[in-house]
Specification:
Blueprint: E1 5-10, H1 24-33, E2 38-42, H2 51-56, H3 58-69, E3 74-80, H4 81-85, H5 94-97, H6 109-129, E4 134-137, H7 157-179, E5 182-186, H8 196-205, E6 212-216, H9 219-224, H10 228-235, E7 239-244, E8 246-249, E9 269-272, H11 281-290, E10 296-299, H12 308-322, H13 341-347
Parallel strand pairs: 1-2, 1-10, 2-3, 3-4, 4-5, 5-6, 6-7, 7-10
Antiparallel strand pairs: 8-9
Length: 351
């Protein structure tokens, strides 16, 4: 077993135009002051990070690591959630996702997709230059509009969608393989990879690519009413990243998992700050430790009730309390008899 690293924090929801959230130097100092030991950087936010420079310049990467190191922080991973989403967009969502791409590419899905693929390739090289071992992204979605269809799905529709999804991602996975970095898809509603079954479907179609792995975030399992502890038992070999995010689900006679088109604060399922929801983090940290997860525990704050600054301040000690120092020896070693193989055979009456 190994000890989980942390606490760390994903900076995407905190970056802004005013101090201390407007530069990497400023936001790093803020995160360190709260007790975080690592940060996960959104690669699309130019206020904090230049992805192209990182892919091309080891000197720039050393500067980034130096900026973090001066306040005692490590870089845990980079994220391309927004760019990854654009690798596969169903036409129904074209206008909604156009805002994730540079303005000059909006209204042109093919150009937008090509840009997104190049962004992922840059992220692979940047991650290698930064000495990182894993990378966070979304799969995008071609089949999501048909997740609960009426009329019924025609035969072969999902197979066609997943075949196309795999063909788009396989070259990207190869690029991450060349860089020596695991590509971790966040299992998330709205993505074609939204549960264990869909991850398996994708993994089969990318021929069990050795760099195809999972970012585990239990909050998305609560909102889908999936068993997140059993997911760890089933897929622990693929869990290479961990977002620590809380959620709650209270079904009623008015709504369930679909949320009734209500705003976040009025939904049956909603994200909460750490400790305010229903996620069994003791169980999660125990199972991840049991299965040898040695990555970072990274806070992702998304709460419709509590402010981000309060959530971040409370998050570092919450994670620290849940990290388990993995046992280095068995509790009953003191009673060991020191028997050897010959003694074992005698005990069994074999000699």
């Amino acid at each position: 077993m190994k000890t989980i690293q942390g606490p760390a924090i994903f900076l995407a929801q905190f970056a802004g135009d005013t101090a201390p959230f407007n530069t990497l130097d400023n936001i790093a100092g803020w995160a360190a002051s709260l007790g975080y030991k690592g940060v996960q950087i959104p690669s699309w936010d130019g206020r904090l990070f230049d992805l192209k420079r990182a892919a091309e310049s080891k000197v720039y990467c050393d500067d980034v690591l130096g900026t973090l190191g001066r306040v005692g922080l490590q870089l845990t991973e980079l994220s391309t959630h927004l760019q990854g989403q654009l690798v596969a967009v169903h036409p129904a969502y074209d206008l909604m996702f156009d805002g994730f791409a540079p303005e000059q590419m909006r209204g042109n899905p093919r150009t937008r997709q090509a840009w997104a693929v190049e962004q992922l390739r840059l992220a692979a090289r940047a991650s290698a230059n930064l000495g990182l071992k894993a990378h966070a992204t979304f799969s995008g979605a071609l089949a999501w509009p048909y997740v609960y269809p009426w009329p019924q799905r025609p035969a072969g529709l999902i197979e066609t969608a997943f075949g196309e999804l795999a063909s788009r991602w396989l070259p990207i996975l190869n690029a991450f393989g060349e860089a020596g970095v695991d590509l971790c898809f966040e299992i998330h509603p709205g993505e074609d990879l939204h549960d264990g079954a869909t991850f398996e479907m994708f993994l089969e179609r990318v021929k069990n690519h050795p760099r195809c792995h999972v970012l585990f975030d239990p909050s998305h399992f609560v909102l889908q009413q999936l068993n997140y502890l059993q997911f760890i038992d089933l897929y622990h070999g693929h869990i290479k990243m961990f977002h620590v995010k809380d959620a709650e689900f209270h079904s009623s006679g008015r709504q369930g998992v679909y949320g009734g088109y209500q705003p976040w604060v009025d939904r049956a399922g909603r994200f909460r700050s750490l400790g305010d929801g229903q996620v069994d983090f003791r169980g999660i940290f125990s199972k991840l430790t049991q299965h040898g997860f040695a990555g970072w525990a990274v806070l992702e704050w998304e709460c419709c009730v509590k402010s981000g600054e309060q959530g971040a301040a409370e998050g570092a000690p919450f994670i620290a309390r849940h990290i388990i120092r993995a046992a280095s020896q068995s509790f009953d070693d003191f009673a060991g008899s020191g028997a050897d193989q010959a003694a074992n055979r005698r005990m069994m009456g074999l000699e």
